[in-house]
């Protein structure tokens, strides 16, 4: 970029900022609920200052050069925050696009006498701003991915509670789809708890599992086999009639596994194995 | 040095594996145990592997062998204290250790062995009784 | 895209080398904070492969690497030997196959324990097996 244009943009920084703010505030999709106008202004100002001071360099069109790293850092910071705050991609994109418009407008107003220069400089601004938009988007998406991954971790963490229903009997209700990552966590938690409590029976309740296909069945069989290797017994309960139907239709062999229709019958079975008895007490009235 | 001690307790033999077995040590154990079962006419073998962090297919095979060989010599084998990570790995490796009994700890393993021996003795008693009936 | 962060080459010729190798693999796994169950899977897989290498090829070389995919780290092990090679890899990768006196679960079982498994073999020249286990995979 020529020295003259650079100087010009530097001098007109305030105009660009005002114009940009005007563009942003005029936009109907402006999220005043997510970001205050003051905050938006300070974000915008920070970015413009970094950007304008960078326009003179030799490597001005090369985003990989070190000179650009402060700008990219600021932009990346803004994009990630917006991703976390729940801005849409369009809203985030408009942030950069409206800046481009503002700069181009100012150039147009200032360079009136020389259409050739205006064209060349506008081209350069276009190219660099497009590159910056790409960077913004990349960072924005990365921010969103991080949010998703964190949530996935949280969900798997909280969705596998192991309950001690009786001395020596554990229960683990599974709610939601059982995929292989989930099975890993279920299995590890269950086996660990078996060791810690010295429980000899574990009940895996699948009432909350929407469907059982051959893969899910494989996961269940794996968990049962691992439990047996440790020296405990694993009962699968909560099998709904439709699940029993699919299991048989798919030709899955569950004959080596103890299955019960309800958690209650699994518990009753466990009592029997442990030689325990639950009795109703006859309350004899004293009067 | 290259030996894992085998303890005798009544009709049972106890083995506690405290180190990760390398191949030669495992093969020695297999040979020693079978010898001991024969010599002491033990009724049960308890193998505690709670300190073992890795069981690969070779080790799994040795454990399976010990169980099958003891069975031929009329002794049951119970493996106790397998770590969760080891159990998961064995299943994924495709080694469910069929024919080997398992228990959570020594005490439960001992009870399991006792109940198994009681059952076989009862069966033997019944057999004798039925034999008597036939001879009479 | 995986990036190699560190590299360690270990010669495996004697039984002591096997113990040394397993310890190094364990150290590496602990260093990248691999969970206990995954550590056990990786070590068991390594144990299977190093045994094959000792039995069929009289030893070889193992390279231990820490790799990164950006988000997570993992351990990559490369076992290369100058043994007889495997004539039919497809058959060797089927459950129940063995030429030796084992259960024949070595390779397919090992594959189930790791995230990535790659095998290259040329009869008369040797075999290279690469496995990768992510810290949380």
Word description of this protein:
The complex is a heterotrimer of chains A (287), B (136) and C (137). By secondary structure, chain A is an alpha/beta fold. Chain A has two domains: 151 residues, Orthogonal Bundle (Globin-like), CATH 1.10.490; 111 residues, STAS domain (Transcription Regulator spoIIAA), CATH 3.30.750. Chain A is built from ten helices and five strands. In chain A, helix 7 links the parallel strand 2 and strand 3. Chain B has 136 residues and is of the alpha/beta class. Chain B has one domain: Transcription Regulator spoIIAA (2-Layer Sandwich), CATH 3.30.750.24. Chain B is 54% helix and 16% strand. Chain B has a five-stranded mixed β-sheet with strand order 1-2-3-4-5, sandwiched between helices. Chain B starts with 5 loop residues before the first strand and ends with a helix. The C terminus of chain B is likely disordered. Chain C has one domain: Histidine kinase-like ATPase, C-terminal domain (Heat Shock Protein 90, 2-Layer Sandwich), CATH 3.30.565. In chain C, a hairpin with a 4-residue loop joins strand 2 and strand 3. The radius of gyration of chain C is 14 Å and the shape is globular. In chain C, 36% of the residues are buried. With 137 residues, chain C is of the alpha+beta class. Chains B and C meet through helix 2 and helix 3 of B and helix 1, helix 2 and helix 4 of C.
Instruction: Return the domain count of chain B.
Output: 1
Instruction: Tell me the radius of gyration of chain A.
Output: 32 Å
Strand order of the largest sheet of chain A: 1-2-3-4-5
Q: What order do the helices and strands of chain A follow?
A: HHHHHHEEHEHEHEH
CATH class of the largest domain in chain A: Mainly Alpha
Q: Indicate the percent of residues in helices of chain B.
A: 40-55%
Strand content of chain B: 15-25%
At the fourth CATH level, what is the homologous superfamily of the largest domain in chain A? Histidine kinase N-terminal domain
Gyration radius of chain B, rounded: 16 Å
Widest sheet, order of strands of chain B: 1-2-3-4-5
Low-confidence stretches of chain A: none
Number of domains of chain A: 2
Shape of chain B: globular
For the sheet with most strands of chain B, the description reads: 5 strands, mixed
User: What is the CATH-assigned architecture of chain B?
Assistant: 2-Layer Sandwich
Number of helices of chain B: 4
